Amino acid sequence: MPVRIPERKQFEIRYNGKTLHLGRKTAIMGILNITPDSFSDGGLYLRPSFAVKKAEQLLKEGADIIDIGGESTRPGSFPISQTSEANRVVPVIRRIREDLGHDFFISIDTYKADVARQALENGADIVNSLSGFELDRKITVVVKDFRCPVIMYHIKGVPRTMQSNPYYKDVVKDVMTYFRAQINVAKSEGVYENQLLIDPGIGFGKSTRDNLRLLRKLDLFSSLGRPLVVGVSRKRHLGSVLKSALQLKALPSESDRLEAALAETSMAVYNGANIIRTHDVLQTKKFTAVIDNLLQIRG
Q1: Is 291 helix (H, G, I), strand (E, B) or coil?
Q2: Among this protein's residues, is 235 annotated catalytic?
Q3: Angle, nearest 10°, between helix axes 48-61 and 281-296?
Q4: What pLDDT digit, counting tens, does each position of 125-165 carry?
Q5: Under 8 Å between Cβ of 284 and 276
Q6: Which helix (H) or strand (E) holds 269?
Q7: CA quadruple 111, 112, 113, 118: dihedral positive or negative?
Q8: pLDDT digit string (tens) for 15-39?
Q9: Catalytic: 277?
């Protein structure tokens, strides 16, 4: 029996005179954390000049979107104030636009409405919102006002406690139900459906098995009719899988999880992911380029 090659849905993300075509080619979102305490790269890019150099590197490696975040959402992390978060990210966004131009997309990774508004006013194009609209309902007002794309990514609970024995009766059905509700919230607040993107939130309030099930069944989320974003880069559950499979005494470090992340990336892209969020842009770009070509072969 021949292997089923799934049809890839075509989408366009438009904002500020830019268009990102999704479908035939997987788009890459490069991570740029302006934080002192992110699990992988905390403290490296707090100075705007360092952040600009990193953004330039990510673009040269093939990033289509630079995802800038000012608050760590690693397991066990505590929230910071809107003022502190804005003071981290807004100068960086402004400086990146001044030095590198406007020909690429910038997303702001925040669930706070005021931070999102300031970021958009200073050059961001996309809001990448943890919990969608649940942690700060006023995000809907910002997205409506700017008519910008918004990525809704799922979390169970809040970062500080999300990994304290998360439980789902059926993780796929539960997350699907969540997104249906979030789409209805957005539409009721005047946000157009074509502004919405969906991210199942791998690692955000989920067990290792939950994460694997979501990736295995990701194609079911295509029924929601919106582009799919997936981020598995350097996540802890990859270390858990490797530790068990290779009978290691300790979890592999974040830098030793690349091959595992690419394995999950292959499953995500095969099952319909349009955008992959990653720390490792060059390696992921090369990897998805081959997958994209394989998925275009028919017969």
Answers
A1: helix
A2: yes
A3: 30
A4: 999 999 999 999 999 999 999 999 999 999 886 776 667 77
A5: yes
A6: helix 258-270
A7: negative
A8: 999 999 999 899 999 999 998 754 4
A9: yes
State which H helix or E strand residue 278 sits in: strand 275-278
pLDDT digits 0-9 by tens, 180-227: 999 999 999 999 999 999 999 999 989 999 999 999 999 999 999 999
Domain borders along the chain are 11-288
Tell me the β-bridge partners of 228. Answer: 198
pTM of the complete model beyond 0.90 = yes
Cα separations in angstroms, 200 against 49, 123, 242: 33, 26, 22
Nearest 10 degrees: Cα torsion 36, 260, 162, 82: 30
Helix (H) or strand (E) holding 153: strand 150-153
Which position has the token pair 């030095």?
99
- Angle ∠(172,177,182) on CA atoms, nearest 5: 125
What's the token pair of residue 276?
């992959």
The dihedral formed by the CA atoms of 181, 234, 125 and 8, expressed in degrees to the nearest 10: -70
Query: What class does CATH assign to 11-288?
Result: alpha beta
Give, in order, the Cα–Cα distances in Å from 31 to each of 54, 219, 275. 10, 24, 12
Strand, coil or helix: what is 258?
helix
Catalytic member of 8, 206, 234, 277: 277
HEC letters along 88-152: HHHHHHHHHHHHHCCCCEEEEECCCHHHHHHHHHCCCCEEEEECCCCCCCCHHHHHHHHCCCEEE
Gap between the Cα atoms of 13 and 227, Å rounded? 9
Q: How far apart are CA 175 and CA 221, in angstroms?
A: 9
- What span, in angstroms and rounded, lies between the C-alpha atoms of 265 and 281? 12
Pick the catalytic residue from 95, 235, 257, 285: 235
